[in-house]
Please model this.
Amino acid sequence: MTPTAVPDEGLRLARILPVAMAALVLLVALLTVTPWPVGAFQDDAIYTVLAKALATGEGYRMINLPGSPHATHYPPAYPFFLSLLWRLAPSFPANIVVFKFANAAWLALAASGSYLFARTRLGWGVGQASAAAVAGTLAIVVLLVTGVVLSEPMFMALLFPALLLAERASDTGSLRMAVIAGLACGVLALVRTLGAVIVPAACLVLLARRRVAAAAALAASAAVCVVPWQLWLNAWQHEVPSVLMGKYGAYGPWVADGFREGGFAFAWEVAVANVGAIVRFVGYAFMPVASLPPRILVVVGACVVSSLGVVVLVRRAPVTAVFLAAYAAVVVAWPFDPDRFVLALWPLLTLCWLAGLESLVRWRPAGRLRGGARVAVLAVCMAMVAGFGTYNWRGYRHQWWASVQRDAGSRAKPIAEWVAASTTASDVLMTDDDLIVYLYTGRRAMPTSTFVPSERVRPPTDQETEAAARTMLDLYRPRYYITTSAPGQRAAERLTMGDAPLLRRHQLIPNAFIYERIAP
Model:
């Protein structure tokens, strides 16, 4: 063996391993793609409707609703990307598989971005960075949102370039780099609204380092992307009636109304509910047992190790550390289940946790008490690794990535079949599966209930559900009201009563109650 053989071998490994890692992530993600219909999360169907509207020349509109109001619920980057694929594969629903394959490719890019971040900002070796990238992207919780038409994989893929560029701009103070970083951050905000917190995070670090001109350049270039979308929102955000604002309208007025009505007490209840949801999610994912004490223990361990990871990021990637803090603050305050917000950052959170674990392993404290604390936390970490491994083994074994799609498809199929056979193309409907019904039958539809911020802390009363249904019946005058839920049925029954009923019982199919509107 020549003296240069070992370095050459290491160089080849450094070139091959990242490619093999990305290929592995792509392969696994492709193998988890299922033919189940779009609409499992509701959001995936909204993205599909918007892609269709853009691809068919109808503009950025909710063409599933009567009147086709302008779309203001989701920023346009992911629907625009899907619309390009729609033009290449215009046959629906066959093109849904194309969309899912594209998400698999985005996930592979996210793995590559995670690898580069670990190598350049955390200083990890090739093997360590590759293993971390695989752990962060092939977790079962990530595959759950990759195998459906959701924006999370695209967000994950674009997050790491935006962070790396912002870190580079903060290191150098280069105006050119700040402009490029700002554009990357602006594009990220157009994929998922919450991604916008990266802009103030980067600006804060730049200002802390007295790079005022670079901070201004980054903010200005990000505004080039974000301001047109904000102008669009201001122009059209009130086009959707308030009863549909939670599902189809702009976030701003919806959230503002919730906090205006609920005040500080509501804000506190939301924070408590969201922290509790995150604790339950993390506790079960890392310790999938029924007993509560070990799950609480691993949550405490996760917090300790993650805090150590944040300390590492403050030193090596300060923009990322501030971004995580700002993102977490918004998630805790947002009146919605936080799980998907957490999943969108899963590869980055994995790096943070592993960075904290690495610093804990390297820590050699003096004194028996500190040494014992270190050993105890390490033991909890090993239990977490074993628990997360068990959780993922169960998920792969039972194909959890398909469970939500399978359940939604099985529930909606009889409804779509009945609608296709029993209604005309001009009929307007109210149904729990309004988006699926539109996509698979062409009938315009709206939901049977509203969604308001207060639902994060308490379910709506029957009177509130009835009032929302009454409002939509008056606004859109649908021919049929179709529901699979108990609250929806109770509301419908109340609307069949009184001196001037709005509905009458029409038909019962295997899993849904169908009512017909009484024409005035």
Remarks:
- The first strand starts at residue 428 and ends at 431.
- The chain has 21 helices and five strands.
